[in-house]
């Protein structure tokens, strides 16, 4: 459904401290992965590792600096805005801050109906109304809320409205950028379950971005772990939780509480020490090496490529070469 090859998104930013001249910040630095129809791919990593930039570049909301994004077999390099418009009919986004992502001057009918008015102008108003009503029920809201405004809803309800807006064009994929991070924990579970149900009913593919592994566990089939703009590990969910390969994934997993005391992490426990290096001056070689307990000489000298460790996981780590 989607193939991403060696994708780069670089920003030119003002330098800091002793380096006031403009510098290049590589927010996404050579990311490759595939997404299959109906699949959920979780993308995790600490704040600032490039998850949102990657998500936006997939839809050209931020232009890629280099690399390929191939949608349904079509290479989008050099595509016109009309070509991207056609992709966005099939691919929608749900954003992190539910209230901020809704136009405060529009009521629910206008918000959810807007994509229909843009992409399906031939539909009569009565049909738009019928589709919006049906979608509202689908996401757990009701018709009585059609003419209300965003500020009249809770965070969880606003996110339901955002999901309804994303689904109204019957897309094949939804990119969810930290859709539950701004919500209370009890509401998070409701929204995750809603997304899971909708995915099953509509055979949707989901890209689900979160900053911790506990959240993506319940929705993803495969998980991509990012650090400083690079992919550290890409693995089948069960493999990743049972036997994480990359030391960064192990560190992230150590921060996730284990509900079942019979499950032992044993020697895999590893806390993440030190701070995320500045993305303006990333370490040479493997970007994780300055915080990695297993780093050795080669890690500083050469960048490890993402390669298969077994048929269920790939890691970018010299420990496996
Ligand atoms: N428009 C921009 N101009 C300059 N730098 C940017 C821009 N957008 C993002 N960045 C930088 O790119 C890096 C990646 O940011 P991004 O928001 O993609 O990370 P993230 O993993 O999604 O973080 P978070 O979880 O906090 O949203 C960060 O260092 C950020 O400061």
TrEMBL record:
UniProt superkingdom: Bacteria
SMART domains: AAA
ABC transporter domain: residues covered: 4-253
GO biological process: peptide transport; transmembrane transport
Keywords: ATP-binding, Cell membrane, Membrane, Nucleotide-binding, Transport
Gene Ontology MF annotations: ATP binding; ATP hydrolysis activity
InterPro entries with a match to the protein in the record: AAA+_ATPase (IPR003593), ABC_transp_ATP-bind (IPR050319), ABC_transporter-like_ATP-bd (IPR003439), ABC_transporter-like_CS (IPR017871), Oligopep_ABC_C (IPR013563), P-loop_NTPase (IPR027417)
PANTHER family: D,D-DIPEPTIDE TRANSPORT ATP-BINDING PROTEIN DDPF-RELATED (PTHR43776:SF7), TRANSPORT ATP-BINDING PROTEIN (PTHR43776)
Family under the similarity heading: Belongs to the ABC transporter superfamily.
Protein name: Peptide ABC transporter ATP-binding protein
